[in-house]
Amino acid sequence: MEAWFLGRGATLTTSHLYRGEALPTLADFDWLVIMGGGMSVNDEPACPWLVPEKALVRQAIAAGKHVLGVCLGAQLIASALGAKVYRNPVKEIGWWPLWREPVVHPLGAALPEKAEVFQWHGETFDLPPGAVRLARSAGCLNQALAVGPRTLGLQFHLETTAASARALVAGAAADLASPGPYIQTPAAMLAQPERFATLNAYMAHVLETLAAH
Known about the structure:
It contains 6 helices and 7 strands, in the order αβαβαβββββααα. It is α/β, with parallel strands linked by helices. It has a 7-stranded mixed β-sheet, with helices on both faces. The model has no long low-confidence stretch (mean pLDDT 96).
């Protein structure tokens, strides 16, 4: 996503909350992009920064900022708006088909009608009040949520590159220890690096659609 934002003249800042860095204020940003992580949104005792982070997400949505959450970020949006986040019946790790829901929503056209996308998650979320489900997969019903025209949560990863996928495989190998119907081997995940360019083109289209509202 960095290249897309920089190409449009944006100034980027990053807050690594797990390092003790401070959250921005609403006046500091036009877009709030919330990325993934190994923790659960329910791990507030072990990760106390989750409490003020959820408060900021709520405030940003209420203020009409552009808010995009990816994986844990989507779950944080759901949790911040009062929905339950919990363990999905199965983990989804690797390339799995995604289907766009046939709903009329300003952000619905941002997603492909059907595509193989990169997944790496073990939890899911219920839809918060006022949210619309935009996509689903065989292993996880709520794959994308929208709240109004400027808040989008994606359970899957369109931003992944071949390099970041290799880093995930190396750094999160414990997630692959237990086999499951939707867990691919590292070899299968990395076998066709050209797929990541298509994935990243989907990401750019999502950003363009979100920016238009």
